[in-house]
C-alpha cells in the first residue's frame, strides 16, 4: 500500500491541565490535601496562608482581602474569601499589564510541562533537608520487642544465637511456626547443639512479654498465660485442667459433656470458662507494628432548631490567598525570565485556589444531598438507613457518577452518632412485602440487634433470623443473612452458644 498524507477532521474530549488538577484535588483525602497544600505553599511564592489576626509589615490592604490598585492605600481590614482574592487579582491584572493571562491552556499540554507544581516536585538530595527515616519509620514489631527483651536476659553466645533463630520463627500472632527439630537443623552443625538445648531456650522466650508468646499451639498458649497468673486466682487449677485435657470439648461447646467429665456444676463451669475467655489466644497482636492512621472529618453535621445543618470543617484545610506584595511585582509588557516566572506562579496560584473552591463546593453539594436523603439515620440510627446509590446523588447534584465516587472516597462526615465515611451512606436494597425497599445497612443493624437479644443457650440460626426478618416484612434469603452476619463479624450459632 502506497503511503500518503490524508487530512481528516474529528472531535475528541481532552482534559486541560486545570481540569486535571481539579480532579486530582477532588479525590484526595483531607490529610493528603493538607500535604498537597503545604507543598504548594513551599513551591509557589504567590500563595500564602490566611491566618486570623494577620498583621503584615507592608501597608498593602490587599493582604486583608480589600480591592486595591498598585498604589499603596490604607483601608479597613476585613476577612478574605476565595472569590474576593480572585476578583482582586483580576483587577490587579487589568491595571498592571495589558495582555491578560489566558484562562485555559492548550488541551494537548500537561500541567507539569508548563508550571512547576508541587506534585512534580522531588525531595532534595541534601541530607540536611531530606530525612529518609521520617518516610520509612514504622511502629515496633513483635520480633523487635522480643529481641529487646533478649538483650536484657543473661545468656551464653550459643543460647543467644538459638534464641534469635527461634524469634525469627515466631509469627505476628505470637506462635512458633517451625518445629524444634527444624530450628535445630537450621543451626550450624559445628555448634553441636542438641534438641534439649533448643527447648530450654524456648522456655526462656516463653517467659517474655506478651504472655503466651512462643507457643506452638493454642493449648500451650493458654497454659502459658494461666501459669503467669497469681496462685490465688479463683478456679486456676480447674482452668489449667480444662485447657490441658478438654480443650477440644470446650471448642465444640458441649457443656454437658464438660460438666460430666470434670464433675462440675453449671455455675462453676461458667466461672472457669470466663477465666479462660479473659486470656488472649493471639498474644502477638498486642504489639502493633503499623503506624496509627488518623481520620479528619471533612464535613460536620449538627442539628439546630430541628434542622440538620451541613458545614465544611474549616480547620481541616488551611485557607489560602494570593500574596499581594509579590503579585504587585508583576510588570506589564515585560517578557523577561523573572517576570514570566512570576506571572506563571501567579496564574498557578489562581488556578490552585479555584480548584480548592470547586472541591469545597462539590463536597458541600454531595454531603447536603446525603444528609437530606439519610435524615432517618441521623435521627434514629442504622435501622432507619434508606437505600442509596451513587446514581441518585449524581442526578440530584447534576454530576457524573464518577465524580460522586471521587468525592465520597476517603471523605468523612462527623455526625452526632460518630464519624462515617461518605460511602457508608450508600447501600444496596432488598424488597419488602409491602412493595417498598430496605437498605442492606438497616438489615445488618436489625440482625445485630436480634443477635444481641438472643438466648445465649439457644442462639438464633441463620434460618431463624431470616424468618424473623420476614415477619417484619423484609424478604431475605438464609444465605444473604449469613453474608451480612459474617460482614458484621458475628460467629455462627454453633459458636455463639454460651452458658448463662
Automatic annotation (TrEMBL):
Keywords, sorted A to Z: DNA-binding, DNA-directed RNA polymerase, Nucleotidyltransferase, Sigma factor, Transcription, Transcription regulation, Transferase
GO molecular function: DNA-directed RNA polymerase activity
Listed name of the protein: RNA polymerase sigma-54 factor
Function in brief: Sigma factors are initiation factors that promote the attachment of RNA polymerase to specific initiation sites and are then released.
Family affiliation: Belongs to the sigma-54 factor family.
Domain named RNA polymerase sigma factor 54 core-binding: residues: 132-326
Ranges for region Disordered: 42-81
Organism expressing this protein natively: Stutzerimonas azotifigens
Glycoprotein among keywords: no
Amino acid at each position: 500500500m502506497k503511503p500518503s498524507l490524508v487530512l481528516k477532521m474529528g472531535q475528541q474530549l481532552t482534559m486541560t491541565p486545570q481540569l486535571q488538577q481539579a480532579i486530582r484535588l477532588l479525590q484526595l483525602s483531607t490529610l493528603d490535601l493538607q500535604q498537597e497544600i503545604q507543598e504548594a505553599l513551599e513551591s509557589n511564592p504567590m500563595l500564602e496562608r490566611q491566618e486570623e489576626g494577620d498583621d503584615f509589615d507592608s501597608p498593602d490592604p490587599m493582604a486583608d482581602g480589600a480591592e486595591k490598585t498598585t498604589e499603596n492605600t490604607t483601608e479597613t481590614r476585613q476577612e478574605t474569601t476565595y472569590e474576593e482574592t480572585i476578583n482582586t487579582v483580576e483587577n490587579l491584572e487589568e491595571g498592571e499589564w495589558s495582555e491578560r493571562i489566558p484562562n485555559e491552556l492548550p488541551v494537548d499540554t500537561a500541567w507539569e510541562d508548563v508550571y512547576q507544581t508541587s506534585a512534580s516536585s522531588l525531595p532534595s538530595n541534601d541530607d540536611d533537608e531530606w530525612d529518609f527515616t521520617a518516610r520509612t519509620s514504622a511502629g515496633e514489631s513483635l520480633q523487635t520487642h522480643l529481641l529487646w527483651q533478649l538483650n536484657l536476659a543473661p545468656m551464653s553466645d550459643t543460647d543467644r544465637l538459638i534464641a534469635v533463630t527461634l524469634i525469627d520463627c515466631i509469627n505476628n500472632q505470637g506462635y512458633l511456626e517451625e518445629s524444634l527439630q527444624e530450628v535445630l537443623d537450621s543451626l550450624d552443625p559445628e555448634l553441636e547443639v542438641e534438641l534439649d538445648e533448643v527447648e530450654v531456650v524456648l522456655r526462656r522466650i516463653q517467659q517474655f512479654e506478651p504472655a503466651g508468646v512462643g507457643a506452638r499451639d493454642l493449648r500451650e498458649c493458654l497454659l502459658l498465660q494461666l501459669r503467669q497468673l497469681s496462685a490465688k486466682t479463683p478456679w486456676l487449677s480447674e482452668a489449667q485442667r480444662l485447657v490441658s485435657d478438654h480443650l477440644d470439648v470446650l471448642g465444640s461447646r458441649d457443656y454437658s459433656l464438660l460438666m460430666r467429665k470434670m464433675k462440675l456444676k453449671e455455675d462453676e463451669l461458667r466461672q472457669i470458662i470466663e477465666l479462660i475467655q479473659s486470656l488472649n489466644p493471639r498474644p502477638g497482636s498486642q504489639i502493633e507494628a503499623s503506624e496509627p492512621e488518623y481520620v479528619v472529618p471533612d464535613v460536620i453535621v449538627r442539628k439546630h432548631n430541628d434542622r440538620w445543618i451541613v458545614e465544611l470543617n474549616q480547620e481541616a484545610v488551611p485557607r489560602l490567598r494570593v500574596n499581594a506584595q509579590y503579585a504587585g511585582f508583576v510588570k506589564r509588557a515585560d517578557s523577561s525570565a523573572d517576570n514570566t516566572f512570576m506571572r506563571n506562579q501567579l496564574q498557578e496560584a489562581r488556578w490552585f485556589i479555584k480548584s480548592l473552591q470547586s472541591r469545597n463546593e462539590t463536597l458541600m453539594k454531595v454531603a447536603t444531598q446525603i444528609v437530606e436523603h439519610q435524615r432517618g439515620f441521623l435521627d434514629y440510627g442504622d435501622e432507619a438507613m434508606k437505600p442509596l446509590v451513587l446514581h441518585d446523588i449524581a442526578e440530584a447534584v447534576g454530576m457524573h457518577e464518577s465524580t460522586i465516587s471521587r468525592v465520597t472516597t476517603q471523605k468523612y462526615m462527623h455526625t452526632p452518632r460518630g464519624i462515617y465515611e461518605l460511602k457508608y451512606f450508600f447501600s444496596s436494597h432488598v424488597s419488602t412485602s409491602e412493595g417498598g425497599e430496605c437498605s442492606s445497612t438497616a438489615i445488618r443493624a436489625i440482625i445485630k440487634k436480634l443477635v444481641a437479644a438472643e438466648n445465649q443457650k439457644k442462639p438464633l440460626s441463620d434460618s431463624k433470623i431470616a424468618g424473623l426478618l420476614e415477619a417484619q416484612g423484609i424478604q431475605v434469603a438464609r444465605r444473604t443473612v449469613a453474608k451480612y452476619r459474617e460482614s458484621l463479624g458475628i460467629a455462627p450459632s454453633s459458636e455463639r452458644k454460651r452458658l448463662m
